[in-house]
Design brief:
Number of helices: 16
Shape: globular
Largest sheet: 3 strands, antiparallel
Number of strands: 3
Structural class: mainly alpha
CATH superfamily of the largest domain: Citrate Synthase, domain 1
CATH topology of the largest domain: Citrate Synthase, domain 1
Oligomer: single chain
CATH architecture of the largest domain: Orthogonal Bundle
CATH class of the largest domain: Mainly Alpha
Strand content: under 5%
Order of helices and strands: EEEHHHHHHHHHHHHHHHH
Radius of gyration: 23 Å
Distance between the termini: 27 Å
Length: 391
């Protein structure tokens, strides 16, 4: 017989439209394409703030005073270095390992070194949060150099979070435009409400697991091409097109085959993602500064075709992933680092939402509606119909 219990239960595929908690951290105005961190419009934060200041805002709920910001920034700088033994360990890893997998491994090692893992106080968790956030760029940059046969570069105490990351990658201090654009990228990726990776972190956190585990869970979810891996895929698409004149046929063929155009569409936004607009402007500025607008011209052509064909009808517009890949390309950052850069910023949002959820914690345990058979009789192996093999 078939199970008929609870057949009236409403299933929302992908949990679309399901609210899991109240929050004071982030608001997405989906109809107008606006984003707010703690009530501040993202455009204002990008224009006036820094990544360090935004981190403080998201974690502590207010903009810091100058003294608070200086103290917080110095704490981050003080936690940047990774042990020499860890660098040696990186050298033993397969050189083809994806950077986000190496970052995940690095966070696991940080957890093993925490001598107060059972201390769940706010102060202990903030200390962990600062340590993870500070070391993530060092791990990513160290791995990129180790896999190329180069010596890792120690963090610079003179540089801010974004500029220091570029310095550790390249071995030279970045110009002011490159440093500022990287700072903006980190601000824009720091938080975005209950996305797949944040929800994964919250599910893990709801069991009262530790902060490291929640971040590792977030990393695992972020890696997917339908989430943090989309920037790399979008860039590869633009490189594959290669010429603005080839964009029309390429995109129309993809649409005819009902294939996804990477860097377009969003579960929440019904209009142009404000983050994409910001990065598009910076991509233009950086293209001009570098004297290389080839990818930008392809991207703008692709954007016009997609919006013309399906944009208004299906509410499909560029998202943050579409133009971020161009910026990484112009900054000469390896393509496969894009999701790791996303992660080293989104650590902020993951930890903020987990700690906010802990204020009124209830373990997250949804149900599945069973639609299979019941009462089936067990048949011994020798009496079973072989049927078609499944292995």
């Amino acid at each position: 017989m078939l199970c008929s219990e609870n057949l009236q239960a409403k299933i929302r595929e992908g949990l679309e439209g399901v609210y899991v908690k109240k929050t004071r951290i982030c608001y997405i105005d989906d109809s107008n394409g606006k984003l707010y961190y703690r009530g501040y419009n993202i455009n204002d934060l990008v224009k006036h703030s820094t990544f360090e200041e935004v981190v403080y805002l998201i974690w502590f709920g207010k903009l810091p005073t100058r003294a608070e910001l200086e103290s917080f920034t110095n704490m981050l700088k003080g936690h940047r270095n990774i042990p020499e033994e860890f660098v040696k360990f990186l050298d033993s890893l397969p050189k083809k390992a994806h950077p986000i997998d190496v970052l995940r491994l690095g966070i696991s090692i940080l957890a093993l070194q925490d001598t107060e893992l059972e201390n769940r106080s706010f102060e202990a968790n903030i200390r962990r949060a600062i340590d993870i956030l500070a070391k993530a760029p060092t791990i990513i940059a160290a791995w990129d150099r180790v896999r190329k046969g180069l010596e890792p570069i120690e963090p610079s105490p003179k540089l801010n979070h974004a500029a220091n990351f570029l310095y550790m990658l390249k071995g030279e201090e970045p110009d002011s435009l490159s440093a500022r654009i990287m700072d903006v990228i980190l601000i824009l990726h720091a938080e975005h409400e209950i996305n797949p990776s944040t929800f994964t972190a919250m599910v893990i956190g709801s069991t009262f697991s530790d902060v490291y585990s929640t971040v590792i869970g977030g990393l695992c979810a972020l890696k997917g091409p339908l989430h943090g891996g989309a920037s790399e895929k979008a860039l590869n698409m633009l490189l594959e097109i290669g010429d603005p004149e080839k964009a029309e046929r390429y995109i129309l063929d993809k649409l005819r085959r009902k294939e996804k155009i990477m860097g377009f569409g969003h579960r929440v936004y019904k209009t142009y993602d404000s983050r994409a607009k910001i990065l598009k402007d910076y991509a233009k500025e950086l293209s001009k500064a570098k004297g290389d607008d080839a990818l930008l011209r392809i991207a703008e052509k692709v954007e016009s075709i997609v919006i013309r064909e399906i944009g208004q009808k299906k509410k499909v517009f560029p998202n943050i992933d579409f133009y971020s890949g161009i910026i990484y390309y112009l900054l000469r950052i390896p393509h496969d680092l894009s999701s790791s850069i996303f992660a080293m910023a989104r650590i902020v949002g993951w930890i903020a939402h987990v700690m906010e959820y802990w204020e009124t914690n209830r373990v997250i345990r949804p149900r599945a509606l069973y639609v299979g058979e019941l009462g089936k009789k067990y048949v011994p192996p020798d009496n079973r119909d072989a049927g078609s093999s499944i292995i």
